[in-house]
Specification:
This protein has 590 residues and is an alpha/beta fold. The protein has a domain of 71 residues: Immunoglobulin-like (Sandwich). The chain has 17 helices and 22 strands. The strands form 6 sheets. The protein has an 8-stranded parallel beta sheet with strand order 13-12-10-5-2-1-15-14. It is globular, with a radius of gyration of 24 Å. The relative contact order is 0.10. The structure holds 1-deoxynojirimycin (NOJ). The site of 1-deoxynojirimycin (NOJ) has 9 residues, from loops.
Length: 590
């Protein structure tokens, strides 16, 4: 199957020659030449996630757009961004805010035009920033022409491009699977007299990857965007693309008698064959990077997913963000966790990533997750100090850091009082599910306040003018009321703000190569208050210590003896002592 264009092949050839010349300079920790993604430019880059709908509205319709992003590229440059992951901006009816794609080859008019996209790619490129597209390939929108054709009958060219199954003899759904957003994962279609499968909403029918024509069509789409000059792809919900050979009921996991689809289809055997094919036909010989959204892949499985023998450069693994959530479908069942567990997430992933010759994407937030200050820090205490402490973790951990828009301004969760205040369909469904499971309204809202995806999606706060400078119109989602204090313009002027600290850390990361390229060692794995680790590279050692509590804590000052303090989030530099939520970076060596 040949989907790469001549341009791509030429890039591949030139890169191959450059890589030979650079041999020895771009080795993975395992020592193998990393063969697929150019010179690995993305390994030392900072990546920044933009929720397009909420970033910056240039035309006053209340919805963010591509020209808005282009107008803010200098903000991203200041943060050291080398890659911008855009959430889907293709034509979409927006049942799931763009994760339901009707046309992969065009930009949704609400976000602009293809000319706007080309200008964004160009202007970002002029600043050494590459655009990363979100490929939503597990499913399309019901309004995609592929699905329209597929559902029009059992005898058409695309009749098996989706997962169609007959009803059970009693007419009910083929299996008892619950979709990730709640309710049955099957939707009945009158015309075909069959059910189609949807891992997420009924408006998001799953594609049938078993059909080679489907895989080819998806590879063509990726090739189209590579030709436009993008620098990478994030592969959405990619662990769900392979379905089991036989569709069978699962063991019910709640009182609705259903079994969550995640347990039934995530990471099904054979999935890697599809993804190896994708890598060979789309990525090989180009300089793009890939990062898979890999819920269901455990650290021990990483060797099959990343690196030389894997299928992606990096995968987003979910262990950390689910640390307090034993069952993703039930937001009311939170569990207490210890800092040592939090740390072991990093140690395990880094060890397994290095062993696989792959790379680790560091993320504490994304557009589906709560704000990290509320997620990972205890409830009391100064939010600015917490935001800075987490910034140190994000920008000094081994791997490519992914900053979620607003994280650099120290955003916290929204706490809207009523479920009707929320926009996100999954949040509403989680709330209803909690009530059906017998939780009280108060308990259900508590779950919403902790996990609602809207918290990561409120409009970006640019200044203290009306609507935080996000739009001159009516914002599609309310601006967070604290915008007069927490906004880009005020924080830029304040040397003690979270934003100023991000900019400082981005500079340190650039200047001190051990912070981006160094090895990683957790030096106090059992301590339940301090996260302490070292990063070593080229004779330099950085020692990083972060206090995860709201109290003053002590550590052995010998750990930083003869070292220079590169930064101290509390501005104190007292070796051996950390004030509440203080983070420090020391450097020693030649
Ligand atoms: C994961 C995306 O991050 C999320 O926002 C979306 O709702 C689902 N996949 C479905 O595409």
């Amino acid at each position: 199957m040949a989907v790469k264009s001549i341009k791509q092949r030429m890039i591949g050839f030139i890169l191959g020659v450059c890589m030979l010349m650079l041999e020895g300079c771009s080795k993975t920790p395992g020592g193998d030449q990393y063969p697929y993604s150019g010179n690995g430019w993305w390994k030392s880059a900072v990546a920044y996630e933009i929720y397009v709908k909420s970033f910056c509205d240039s035309d006053g319709d209340g919805v963010g757009d591509l020209n808005g992003i282009t107008s803010k590229l200098d903000h991203l440059k200041e943060l050291g961004a080398g890659a911008i992951w855009l959430t889907p901006c293709y034509v979409s009816p927006q049942a799931d805010n763009g994760y339901d794609i009707a046309d992969y080859y065009n930009i949704d008019p609400a976000y602009g035009t293809m000319d706007d996209m080309e200008r964004l790619i160009k202007e970002a490129g002029d600043r050494d920033i590459r655009i990363v597209m979100d490929l939503v390939f597990n499913h399309t929108s019901v309004e995609n022409e592929w699905f329209r054709e597929s559902r029009s009958g059992k005898d058409n060219d695309k009749s098996d491009w989706y997962i169609w199954e007959d009803p059970k003899p009693d007419g009910s759904a083929p299996t008892n699977w619950r979709s990730i957003f709640g309710g049955s994962a099957w939707e009945y279609d009158e015309t075909r007299g069959q059910y189609y499968l949807h891992t997420f909403l009924p408006e998001q029918p799953d594609l049938n990857w078993a059909n080679p024509e489907v895989r080819k069509a998806l590879q063509d789409i990726a090739g189209f965007w590579i030709d436009k000059g993008v620098g990478g792809f994030r592969l959405d919900a990619i662990t769900y693309i392979k379905k089991p050979e036989v569709f069978e009921d699962g063991k019910p996991d709640a009182s609705d008698g259903m079994a969550g689809i995640h347990a039934m289809t995530a990471n099904t055997e054979g999935i890697l064959d599809y993804l190896h094919e994708f890598k060979a036909n789309v990525q090989e010989g180009t300089d793009i990077f890939t990062v898979g959204e890999a819920n269901g892949v455990s650290p021990s499985d990483l060797k099959n997913w990343i690196g030389k023998d894997g299928v992606f450069d990096m995968v987003f693994e979910f262990g950390l963000v689910n640390i307090d959530l034993p069952d993703e479908s039930n937001w009311c069942r939170r569990r207490e966790w210890k800092l040592s567990e939090f740390k072991s997430f990093f140690s395990e992933n880094l060890e397994d990533s290095d062993e696989a010759g792959g790379w680790f994407p560091v993320f504490l937030e994304n557009h589906d997750q709560p704000r990290s200050i509320d997620h990972f820090m205890p409830g009391d205490g100064d939010r600015i100090a917490k935001g800075k402490a987490l910034a140190v973790l994000l920008l000094t951990m081994r791997g490519t850091p992914f900053i979620m828009q607003g994280e650099e301004l120290g955003y916290v969760n929204v706490d809207w009082p009523d479920i009707d205040d929320y926009n996100d369909i999954s949040t509403k469904n989680h709330y209803s599910f909690a009530l059906e499971e017998g939780y009280t309204e108060e308990e259900a809202m508590d779950g919403v306040h902790h996990f609602a995806r809207d918290s990561a999606r409120t409009p970006m706060q640019w200044d203290d003018s009306a609507n935080a400078g996000f739009t001159t119109g009516d914002p599609w989602l309310p601006v967070y009321p604290d915008y007069q204090i927490f906004n880009r313009s005020s924080e830029k002027k304040d040397p003690d703000s979270v934003l100023s600290y991000y900019i400082r850390l981005a500079g340190l990361r650039r200047e001190h190569s051990e912070l981006s390229e160094g090895s990683y060692e957790d030096i106090m794995p059992d301590d339940e208050c301090i996260f302490a680790y070292t990063r070593e590279h080229s004779g330099k050692k950085a020692t990083i210590l972060i206090n995860f509590t709201g109290s003053e804590v002590r550590y052995d000052a010998d750990l930083v003896k003869d070292a220079v303090c590169l930064t101290d989030s509390a501005g104190e530099d007292r070796p051996g002592v950390l004030s509440p939520f203080e983070a420090v970076i020391y450097e020693s060596g030649e």
